[in-house]
Structure formats: structure tokens, C-alpha cells
User: What shape does this take?
Amino acid sequence: MRRNRMIILAALAVCACQHASAETKAVLADDTEPTLGALKDALSEHMERSDIQFGVSDPTEQPIVSVLPRSLGADIGMSLALPTLFDLVLRDSVCFAIERETREAVALPNVPCRPA
Assistant: This one.
């Protein structure tokens, strides 16, 4: 009985692997205004913020996008807030940004990406 369960579990694992979509690290295909605007719009909606500013990383070279924390204003000193990091991936030729902290996937259908 135990052997049968092991065989069934092994078969299910093999089937699951065959049906899982392939995920590849990705970078932006270009850094034009339409591409960066579409990325900014998608991440703005995901983060429920309209004031998205990207960090210094170059997402056409590295599969990472950093979104800077909100500006606290001139009267506030140094902030300890950290940027929000997203990993760019391709799944079935659609670009996604995966938020590192929550692992939530944000589809980027209007953002052209290529394998990293």
C-alpha cells in the first residue's frame, strides 16, 4: 500500500513538472519611454501608488527593477525606508515582475522583455 502511494506521488510530480510553465530571468528589451511608461503604470497599479520612481539599476542590463520609497519631504531627515525590489522573468513569452518580499507576480503584457 505504501509503495503504491509512492508511485502515485512520483507520477504526479512528473506530470506537474511537465505542465509547469518555464520561467526565465529577463531584462527589458529597451529603455524607451513607452516601455518604461508601461512598466511604471503596471507597478504603480500593483503598489497602489502614483509616484513611482525607479532606482539606479538598469533593467535592460540586469533582471532587477527597484522602486524607490516615497519622498518624505524636505523637513524630514534621513529615511530608513528601503526600495521595493522586483525580479523580471519571462513566463510563456510574457514578462512578469515578481515582488521579492511578497513573491506576488505582476503581469507586464505591454512591456517588451528578452531573456537575460
Notes: Residues 23-115 form one domain.
